[in-house]
Amino acid sequence: MSTSTSPVTAPTTSTRPSPAGVRRNPRHRVNRLHFILAPLALLWMIPVIMILGLSLLPTSDPSTTFFNLLLSSPSLSNYANVWQQNPIFRNLVNSLMITVPSVVLVTLAGSVAAFALAMLKVSFRGVIFAALILARVLSMSGIVVAIFKILQSFGLYNSLSGLTLVYTALGLLSAVIIFRTAFLALPYETYETYEASVLDGANKWQTYRQSISRWAARHWPSSWCGG
Predict the structure, then answer these.
(1) DSSP element (H, E) containing 206
(2) Which of 134, 138, 142, 190, CA to CA, is 20 to 30 A from 173?
(3) Which of 43, 62, 85 is a domain's end point?
(4) CA 75, CA 137: separation in Å to the nearest integer?
(5) Residues 39-88: pLDDT tens digits?
(6) pLDDT digits (tens, 9 = 90+) for 108-135
(7) Are 202 and 210 in contact (CB under 8 A)?
(8) Residues 166, 127 share a domain
(9) Does residue 15 belong to any structural domain of this protein?
């Protein structure tokens, strides 16, 4: 008795993707929102273009065209006059001499004060922090007379050192608030390092320098940007 076997053929599947599964290249997709954003961006730049045009407008020929946006004869003489008639370089140096010490003093003093308010058992630290928050309400016009009297009594009026101390005092409130919030949000690993340094007998300055300052050096830039 003979049996015949027919060859088994595998079912053929089409490799052509279905129309529903076709994914278009996003590079070829035109976002219609750009047709609205591009004119708005140009409209937003009109004041900037006008200010730049006014800076290039010479006094000898102040004529303009196209709605005062285009100059008939632009010139760089105004910029040359500014550099010749004003000590721009000396003013920039003075700004650096005021800004750099102010930032350093605000960072050091603010971080130490925030470390004490956040991590140490300071008496009435809640009251102190509330007083700092209330001091933020004071406007500059309300304390300018007091600042003038203090600088005059210490002989620091009309000096770079006095101006540096003023900017340091004004920025110290924000620094303490921002750094205290950052210290209270310490990650668990950093808090364990802090507790270990306390158990090992380290004093307050050592715990600040070893555990807290290392973490804060990595996170202070983001804290300042967020604040």
Answers:
(1) helix 204-207
(2) 190
(3) 85
(4) 47
(5) 898 888 888 888 888 888 887 777 766 666 677 778 888 888 888 888 88
(6) 898 888 888 888 888 888 888 888 888 8
(7) yes
(8) yes
(9) no
Distance CA 160, CA 67 (A): 45
Q: Name which residue leads in pLDDT, 15 or 113.
A: 113
Tally of structural domains, the chain: 2
Contact 197, 207 (CB under 8 A): yes
Residues 140 and 72 in one domain: no
Domain range for 48 is 32-85
Q: Where are the alpha helices (DSSP H) in 25-159?
A: 34-44, 46-55, 77-85, 88-119, 125-135, 140-153
- Could you tell me if 53 and 76 are in contact, meaning their C-beta atoms sit under 8 angstroms apart? no
**Same-domain status, 167 and 56:** no
> Do 102 and 73 lie in a common domain?
no
Nearest-angstrom CA–CA distance, 77 and 200: 68
| 164 in the same domain as 131 | yes
At 81, list the tokens. Answer: 């006059």
Pair 78, 162 in one domain: no
CA distance 168 to 145: 17
Q: What is the DSSP letter of 65?
A: E
Query: What is the 8-class DSSP label of residue 93?
Result: H
Type of residue numbered 92? L
Asked whether the beta carbons of 182 and 217 are under 8 A apart, the reply is no
The answer, as to whether pTM is greater than 0.85, is: no
